[in-house]
């Protein structure tokens, strides 16, 4: 169950007031203030095919009871994942990337494991 927008906005404001904070997710609109306050915004640009493989493989593992889940895996849920993945690729991702063009801070797009390793090394050696 999701929080009411007022609760969500209050929680975001509390997080951003901290010295160190991380916000996870690709959201537009209500997170704009936090994105502008961030030292760095990192977008993990996982390829469409990789995302598809991962959620199908996870579904199969959950159906085989090799992996636990907090929900009952169903075929209808799997179909929704395909729809969400397409919607993310065609609508959410472009809107998010457009929003990030206006950021005054550092915006980084990560496309593979080597870039993640390089970023982590850079972040660990940077004085904030």
| Strand fraction | 5-15%
The chain-level mean pLDDT equals: 89
Largest beta sheet: what is the strand line-up?
A: 1-2
Total domains: 1
**Number of distinct beta strands:** 2
Number of helices: 5
| Share of residues in helices | 55-70%
Principal-axes shape call: globular
Classify the oligomer: single chain
Main sheet specs = 2 strands, parallel
Over all CA atoms, what is the radius of gyration? 17 Å
Protein name: DNA topology modulation protein FlaR
InterPro entries: Cytidylate_Kinase-2, P-loop_NTPase
Report what the structure shows:
The protein has one domain (5-125). Helix content is 57%, strand content 8%. It is built from 5 helices and 2 strands. The protein has helices at 5-16, 32-37, 48-63, 75-100, 113-125; strands spanning 40-44, 106-110. It has a two-stranded parallel sheet. Helix 3 (48-63) runs antiparallel to helix 4 (75-100).
Describe what is shown at a glance.
The chain is mainly alpha-helical and 128 residues long. It is built from five helices and two strands. The model has no long low-confidence stretch (mean pLDDT 89).
Q: Any key phrases for this structure?
A:
128 residues, two-stranded parallel ribbon
Q: What is the topology?
A:
Blueprint: H1 5-16, H2 32-37, E1 40-44, H3 48-63, H4 75-100, E2 106-110, H5 113-125
Parallel strand pairs: 1-2
């Amino acid at each position: 169950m999701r929080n009411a927008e007022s609760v969500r906005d209050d929680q975001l404001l509390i997080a951003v007031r901290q010295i160190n904070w991380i916000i996870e997710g690709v959201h537009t609109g209500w997170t704009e203030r936090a994105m502008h306050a961030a030292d760095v915004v990192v977008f993990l640009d996982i390829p469409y095919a990789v995302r598809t493989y991962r959620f199908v493989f996870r579904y199969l593992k959950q159906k085989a009871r090799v992996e636990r889940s907090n929900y009952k895996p169903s075929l209808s849920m799997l179909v929704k994942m395909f729809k969400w993945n397409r919607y993310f690729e065609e609508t959410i991702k472009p809107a998010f990337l457009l929003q990030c063009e206006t950021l005054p801070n550092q915006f980084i797009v990560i496309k593979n494991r080597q870039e993640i390793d390089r970023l982590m090394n850079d972040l660990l050696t940077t004085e904030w």
